[in-house]
Amino acid sequence: xxxxxxxxxxxxxxxxxxxxxxxxxxxxxxxxxxxxxxxxxxxxxxxxxxxxxxxxxxxxxxxxxxxxxxxxxxxxxxxxxxxx
Length: 84
Description:
The chain has 84 residues and is α+β, with helices and mostly antiparallel strands. It has four helices and two strands. The chain has helices at 2-13, 44-47, 62-65, 71-82, and strands spanning 20-26, 31-37. Strands 1-2 form a two-stranded antiparallel ribbon. A hairpin with a 4-residue loop joins strand 1 and strand 2 (31-37). Helix 1 (2-13) packs antiparallel against helix 4. The protein is globular.
C-alpha cells in the first residue's frame, strides 16, 4: 500500500491540476499497476535522477510541494525487494 500511495501522491503533486490516471491489470501470479500524471513531463536527462534520494526537478518548488524527496526512492526500493 505504501508503494501505491507514494506513486499516486508523487504523480498528483506534479499534474499542474490536470489529474492523474491509474491503470491496473493482473492475474493470480502478478499485477501491473501504472500511475500516470498529466503534467508537463520530465526530460530524458532527468528521468534517472528522479529516483535519487532528495532529488527535486524544480528546486524552487521544494517548500511549497512538501514531502521529503524520498517518495520515488522508496518506491524503487520496495519494488526491488518484492521482485527478488
